[in-house]
Design brief:
Helix content: 40-55%
Order of helices and strands: EHHHHHEHEHEHEEH
Number of helices: 9
Shape: elongated
CATH topology of the largest domain: Rossmann fold
CATH architecture of the largest domain: 3-Layer(aba) Sandwich
CATH class of the largest domain: Alpha Beta
Length: about 220
Amino acid sequence: MIQALIFDFDGLILDTETPIFRSWQELYAAHGGSLTIDQWAHVVGTASLEQDHFARLEGQIGFALDRAALAPMRRQREWELVLAQPLLPGVLDYLQEGRRLGLKIGLASSSPCRWVTAHLERLEIIGYFDCIYARDDVQRVKPDPELFLAVLAELRVAPEAAVIFEDSPLGVQAAKAAGAWCVAVPNPVTRHFSLAQADLCLGSLAEISLEELLHKLEGMRPRPA
């Protein structure tokens, strides 16, 4: 019996993936480089570092950039794009329905805690979560399962009694490594990637109600990690 729901943040609750990708893609293009979805697939869902992205771009164009000047400009562009994003479809319904059903609700993100909590507060949904774990709270982020295992431990729920909602291949990998059920809900960026390791894949959380989803999982066998 499912006792808990665990949500990723970036790309699952709020589509931050598209703005982040677009801001870097625009920067690459402005300096004669290129950034494709396939290249981006290697960093989605991880704690990728800004300096790594700059290093890849400099490797393409063959000369060093003024990172100190460009970094805040790119971050500002990312922030502008993120602020224009609404909650993804079905997210609020699932949070409300989860509360009504008496389920525990957690969040596990490879992003910094300040980034996650600032958006949750701005969107007025932080009160739905019983616990929140982010990059700052663990030694290893996704695809390592440490974030999910930490949330499960705090919620006092066995992995097989939890459903993890993820949008990226590395997030799905971490969820399955934790031993939990995993429902993949890709966003406009991650829909280009394979999420076949998930137990179930939805076009959005608005596709079916939470009760319908839980009923569907009851009749399934979980996929192996």
